[in-house]
Amino acid sequence: MFTPEQFNAFSLRSRPAAKRILASAMNAVDAGAAVRKYLHENPLPNAKRLFAFGLGKAAWAMTSALADAAELVEGLVVTKHAPALSAAQRRIAVLEGNHPVPGLGSVNAGTEALKLVSQLTPDDLLVCLISGGGSALMTAPRIPLEDLQALTSALLACGARIDEINTLRRHLDHLKGGGLARAANGAQIVSLILSDVVSDSIEAIASGPTAPDPTTNADALSIIEKYDLKDTIPAAVISSLRETPKPDAPIFERVQNKIIASNSLALRAAQSQAQTEGFETKILRADLQGEASVVGREVASQLRESLQKANRPFCLLAGGETTVTLKGRGKGGRNQELAIGGVEMLDGLKDVALVSLATDCEDGPTDAAGAVVTGESARRAKSLGMSAADYLSQNNAYVFFNALDDLVRTGPSGTNVNDLVLCFAF
Prior knowledge:
Layout: H1 16-28, H2 31-41, E1 49-55, H3 59-69, E2 74-79, E3 92-96, H4 104-118, E4 124-130, H5 134-137, H6 145-157, H7 162-170, H8 179-182, E5 188-194, H9 217-226, H10 235-239, E6 255-261, H11 263-276, E7 280-288, H12 292-306, E8 314-320, H13 334-341, H14 343-346, E9 352-358, E10 370-374, H15 377-383, H16 388-393, H17 397-404, E11 407-408, E12 419-425
Helix pairs in contact: 1-11, 2-3, 7-9, 12-13, 13-17
């Protein structure tokens, strides 16, 4: 569970109420707690044998919660950070995949997942515990791994949305887009899912291993055309696209897909805590998308405009998942990029803060969960000889906020429900 003290960026140290609000949001989407709550309210179907398959950044917390509540014959977890296992937990195999670009660990995870489900029968129950990150962490690709890596890197660099990336992944993989359900030999499947995508589209979360796929090969091709990638990605990508199981496929008659936590739940928890702290509150939206720095300027502008209308203290909340088009060789993540995009808009404003936070607390290839911007950030940066615009042009937000001591560093959270943006006027 999160404590307020974990949110110890420089600009939050004198803001205990803001830190309590952030902790409340994170604790509301604790992965293990979400599974325990679901199982308490929804008994699992009867079956001869019970198997577990966890996939994603929150897979271990979710699977261990299931193992505490039910007797497993066997379990497999594919995640980003493998935990140390107790003797009682060693009946669950844990594998580390690669993220955000799939690697040999991801391929090995796909092989082991296929082995697990190949032994199932119609008398068995497979409980899948699915969370974000699973698309990269596990793969059984129809193309060579190096071609999949090249495609993934190209999509990430051009700013493609995660739903677009996962559309291509589903049509290039034996396990995604309902592929795991298809390989389960007619076993009952209950998938408990933490949503890390805008609109909670089940097929997009970890690329929907147990979900029907409403998209087609034509949709996948349109994404390649949209980002003008046809001449830059391996030729095998286009020739290897295959159609996926659709919603009316018989394999889904014995599959239940249940979302048990989402970004909206975290936003509502933050709103409730903010109201308890005496803040006027408003949830702006839960579907933030687009270029991170542009979204940062827009959200900061809304905070600035609200100063003329709302009474202090107030808190504006938003959630979603932005993207970054890489132009420089700097270091950062989409939340840090969003935050640096708001620096100039907030310049000079008193007693305000914008916090952008990845709920998995792993923002890009960094040790930060996100960053904090205040009306003092531009001035403090100038005193150090830094300009937000210069660092943004190099996608180097990590170095900028590290110098200001305004990175949010908590360590991996063990959950994953997209990003949170909280704007405060104290």
